[in-house]
Amino acid sequence: MKKFRTLLSALTLVLALLACNFPGSGEQVPPPGDVQTFAAQTVEALLVTPSATEPQAILPETPASTSTPTAGATVTITPTYSVPMLRLLENTNCRSGPGQEYEIVYTYLVWKELEIIGAYPQLNYWLVKSPESPSGQCWLWGEYAEVKGSYWAVPSVTPPPTATKAPPAAPSIQEWTFNCNVGQMTVSIKWTDRAADESGYRIIRNEGTAAELPADSKSYAETIPYTAGDKFVYFVEVYNASGAVRSTPIQFTCP
């Protein structure tokens, strides 16, 4: 509506200018060319040029692109890894397996640090790299050691089978004596200890155990009651976890 009113005012002005150029005699004389040109330009400007107060179109601002995690997506976090190490707090035997029944491979001194490559948590043993071992590895008890690094990442390993040991070498009786006197029998036996890994010795009398002796024993003597005509048979038996072996027997009869 405002634009229409402006256009009407401009046309009125143009008509006034044209009227001023009419002669008084009433003859119509065309207005000068510059007046016509000005009037045309004014009308054209009003028809083409928008009002200065007309609001301009404002384009919406494009929002910045943001990344939204997809629902249900799994985020993977990679933990920091460090070499698992075992540090000894006391001098410790490193064995061929996790337990005292395994052979000692090497004895490491306190503060020694070794790389862990396996675990046997059932008995608190760690499998470590060992340059001193023929196989390049051995087993250390964790009771007197501390661990560091990513020890939780090492695999659990199966222990090797224990070596089957042969029974110890049989003792060899070197000397023995007996004496039967007034219902008392005294016997003395001496032998050669030929075993290197025995757990102990037993004195076997008439197929019963007369005494238990520690490893490296080499003699035994006893005095017991008897009845005339009693017969006695003695063995010296050596044993370990693999079995027991007896000496040749000695035997005698009390009159």
Key features?
255 residues; mainly beta; Immunoglobulin-like; five-stranded antiparallel beta sheet; rod-shaped
Topology record:
Elements: H1 2-20, H2 33-48, E1 85-88, E2 92-95, E3 104-108, E4 113-120, E5 125-129, E6 137-141, E7 145-148, E8 172-181, E9 184-192, E10 200-205, E11 208-214, E12 219-225, E13 231-240, E14 243-246, E15 250-253
Antiparallel strand pairs: 1-4, 1-7, 2-3, 4-5, 5-6, 8-9, 9-12, 10-11, 10-13, 13-14, 13-15
Helix pairs in contact: 1-2
Task: Explain what the structure shows.
By secondary structure, the protein is mostly beta strands. It folds into 3 domains: 2-48; 85-153, SH3 Domains (SH3 type barrels), CATH 2.30.30.40; 172-253, Immunoglobulin-like (Sandwich), CATH 2.60.40.10. Helices cover 14% and strands 36% of the residues. The chain is built from 2 helices and 15 strands. It has helices at 2-20, 33-48; strands spanning 85-88, 92-95, 104-108, 113-120, 125-129, 137-141, 145-148, 172-181, 184-192, 200-205, 208-214, 219-225, 231-240, 243-246, 250-253. Strands 6-5-4-1-7 form a 5-stranded antiparallel beta sheet, with no helix packed on it. Strands 10, 11, 13, 14 and 15 form a 5-stranded antiparallel beta sheet that branches. A hairpin with a 7-residue loop joins strand 5 and strand 6 (137-141). Helix 1 (2-20) packs antiparallel against helix 2 (33-48). The longest helix is centred in the first third of the chain and has 19 residues, at 2-20. The protein is rod-shaped. It starts with a helix and ends with a strand.
